[in-house]
Amino acid sequence: MDNESDSDDNLAISVRGLRKTYGKSVAVDGLDLDVRRGEVFSLLGPNGAGKTTTVEILEGYRSRDGGAVDVLGEDPGRPPKAWRTRIGIVLQSVNDAAELTVEEMVGHFAHYYPNPRNPGDVIDLVGLTEKRKARTRQLSGGQRRRLDVALGILGRPELLFLDEPTTGFDPEARRQFWSLIRLLNDEDTTIVLTTHYLEEAEELADRVGVVSAGKIIEVGSPARLGGRDSGKATVPWTGPNGPESEQTDSPTRVVTELSRRFDGEVPGLAVSRPTLEDVYLKMIGAAR
Amino acid sequence: MSDTATTAPGTRATSGNPPSALRVGLQRGYIEIRQFLRERDAVVFTLGFPVGLMILFASIFHGEIGHTGVDYRQVFISGMIASGIMSTSFSSLAISIAQERDDGTLKRLAGTPMPRASYFIGKVILVLATGVLETALLLAIGTAFFGLDLPQTGARWLTLAWVFVLSLVACSLMGIAMSSVPRSGRAAAAVVQPPFIILQFISGVYFLFSALPSGLQQVAAIFPLKWMTQGLRSVFLPDSFLGQEPAHAWEHGRMALVLLAWCVGGLVLCLRTFRWKGRRDG
């Protein structure tokens, strides 16, 4: 599925033929996945495609019914004690410790790790400095998620799982979060991100894997996924009779012709490739 | 989310093992107590309820029981102290753990390197602290206003100590096991409290145990609370009350045995049934 020259040492995660069933329904159906050390890998897929089940198996939360799984050189189904110090998990929808302050919570969780970051620094890093004395129940949804991220990165994980981390963020908070992720990635943290925001995957991910019906149906960089870079481009412009457009494999030629025809500036000219969302929806549609 | 890197890249968690279970457990105990004291509902419900009940009952009902020289109040307060121990251990653990399973506390903890034992050490510390506080409160109010006498001999203080510890351990383990029964955190109190209230009625807290029908007495004798109230009566009441006990004796040996059996049974149940995930999490 992927570059065959990847040796095991370069992989943070390697999954072959993963299976998980709940009663008669098959949640994960022979899934293969490689995540390289140091990359940001984003899992995309509709609800019920098996994303969360897959990630929770990788995190050691769920058992599997079949397949081989290797996360940082260990089987997450039977991890040695020190393994958990090497991964960080940011869960969806946790509402614990309502009565503790941000500072107390981060300070307390630091005791769980052999070599934690400084709790005050982590609070600054996720942008909760102003809220450090606030009880967690007083935090907004977005602030709550930032606290989750703070707890996830506290132990300096080699591998960080983020499950829909920016749900409920306003656009500015999302941008700040993205720069935090880039910062962590610059420190060589491998990041596995599940998200519903294609824009987010495009912004952050080195590679994207699309999950549908319990399988990975395609893996690629956001710019190339689904032949996006080589697909037909659309060239719209405004003609004498209103908006016009042309689908083409050679947009440069179309633009040159237009520029000749209009003798200079072409009104309303643009060249667009299919967006990640376009190719994603097409893939998901075809898989169904 | 500022852009300042806090630490040099490359320093990784790989160095060193997770901290010891005991050290993390002590930290958890500290955080548990802090959270408990900040949740006014829990403080009122767990600590205040037995105190309120004791004041109410002891104000309404009193009078000598037979020719024992013992006032009903003293019997009732002994029973209420036993109830208080069960409330701070069984009820509070069963409800709080069910809620923590529901709100993601347990799931989050299970995803960290926190030693699993540390969570339970933290709970033990919380239960010990609240149990001692509750018992001291009831004792203080009982002796100050309702004519309860503090234990007269060293032997009786010793009995108080071992009955307290065994009761707390047995009820805590039952509470941890019980926490798996409610289907959600919200339903927890509704599921946990009724059996506890029924046990109080048949175990000699509100009514004289010897006045209950023998069938009920036999049912109650299966559960720990009956033995706990009896143990506390043996601490606070004179031996002249023995005529009112079903066996005409304090039965310390049997008491210890039943409570120990519940400790062992509770531990086995906990080990077999404890889940770190909620029902929704599959």
Describe the structure.
The complex is a heterodimer of chains A (288) and B (282). Chain A has 288 residues and is of the alpha/beta class. Among the domains of chain A are: 125 residues, 3-Layer(aba) Sandwich (Rossmann fold), CATH 3.40.50; 40 residues. Helix content of chain A is 29%, strand content 26%. Chain A contains eight helices and eleven strands. Chain A has a six-stranded mixed beta sheet, sandwiched between helices. In chain A, helix 2 crosses helix 3. The N terminus of chain A is likely disordered. Chain B is mainly α. Chain B has one domain. Helix content of chain B is 67%, strand content 0%. Chain B is built from ten helices and no strands. The N terminus of chain B is likely disordered. The chains are: A alpha/beta (288), B mainly alpha (282). At the A-B interface, helix 2, helix 3 and helix 5 of A face helix 1 and helix 4 of B.
Concise overview:
The complex is a heterodimer of chains A (288) and B (282). Chain A has 288 residues and is an alpha/beta fold. Chain A has 8 helices and 11 strands.
What's the structural blueprint in terms of helices and strands?
The complex is a heterodimer of chains A (288) and B (282).
Chain A: E1 11-22, E2 25-36, E3 40-44, H1 51-58, E4 66-71, E5 87-90, H2 102-110, H3 119-125, H4 141-153, E6 159-163, H5 171-186, E7 190-194, H6 198-204, E8 207-212, E9 215-220, E10 233-239, E11 242-248, H7 251-262, H8 276-287
Helix pairs in contact in A: 2-3
Chain B: H1 21-38, H2 40-60, H3 72-102, H4 105-110, H5 116-145, H6 154-178, H7 188-202, H8 214-220, H9 224-236, H10 252-273
Helix pairs in contact in B: 1-5, 2-3, 2-5, 3-5, 3-6, 3-7, 3-9, 6-9, 6-10, 9-10
